Give the backbone structure.
Amino acid sequence: MNGGGDHRVTARPPYYAVIFTSIRADGDDAGYAAASARMIELAGGMDGFLGVDSARDGIGITVSYWQDEASIVAWRRESEHAEAQRRGRGEWYAAFQLRVCRVEREYGYTAPARPLAE
Amino acid sequence: MNGGGDHRVTARPPYYAVIFTSIRADGDDAGYAAASARMIELAGGMDGFLGVDSARDGIGITVSYWQDEASIVAWRRESEHAEAQRRGRGEWYAAFQLRVCRVEREYGYTAPARPLAE
């Protein structure tokens, strides 16, 4: 999966985050990239989906944000996603960890606009 | 911060995760990299620190894992870290979000060893 995502979501805590860290197995970069993009698209249509952030740089880290735990369960069971999970275990990942978390509090920062150089 | 980290931690849920997502401001890559490496080193010596995963790929995502909320508060207040936070706002980040989460459940996967090709 390529880096990117929404960077910020607008839900107020509490909501949920799924932290998925992974080490890729060698091979099938194109198939993996296509499946990753499709999963982002598919998740975006699920009830309760709030956003996703993702980066890969040695380790891959994808954090998806959800309104509640029921939304996460529904996503895990979604049929096309279930098939991608099966291929992930069989082909794409050497290892992964998945953590389901309750977001307790959050804050953000945006730098003030800088004046244009003259 | 370069990608990497422990990838897996051994604590049993519940424990805590701090999800820090960021967009870098332009410039001072060397200073930023040095400070990031120093923060990882410093966090590793804090009570309650369990591990860290980090990747930057457009967006930066650093997830640090902690035994409890008190450990997170102590880390936020650590003096050298507080100075790095100040520089982060002033110089290094165009924007960031910080989320404090309670890890409710976790599971992992490691691919079975593959036989060597003959």
User: Anything to note?
Assistant: Chain A touches chain B at residues 2-5, 7-8, 13, 17, 19, 21, 23, 25, 53-61, 63, 69, 89, 93-111 (CB under 8 Å). The mean pLDDT of chain A is 92.
